[in-house]
Amino acid sequence: MSLIKRNDLVPAWSNLFDDFLNPNWYDWSNRHYSDTNTTLPSVNIKETADNFEVEMAAPGMEKEDFRVEVNNGYLTISSEKQCESKKEDKKGRYTKQEFCYESFSRSFTLPGSADTEKIEAKYEKGILTISIPKKEEAKPKPVRQISIG
Question: What are the structural domains of the chain?
């Protein structure tokens, strides 16, 4: 048995219109863009026995462009960058000038097993890597044999 959406005003057409106007068809939202219409950097998050690792692809940036914060159980990675290209002719008028402003902010909920006092970050070759160690009590313990007496 399947559930079908129903519109009592125009029952013959209701499913056709409901299916055609499904939000998935016309969802052109900016969910991959920041408020300034710049692309949000993609992330990879992996877990090992000892830590969590967040990798953020951000080529063309410098380590000084990033701000990494831990607050109330959230890890927030943000950046705000302004640049401008100055091209002037002999009279001092601009023949071409481009301003740019880029910003983003991404937040992640930290698990209770994260040791927030020992988080480290580095930026190399366009990848920001944040290492979040696990608390000792959260790390898996090796199998221990118990002798039978």
Answer: 33-138 (2.60.40.790)
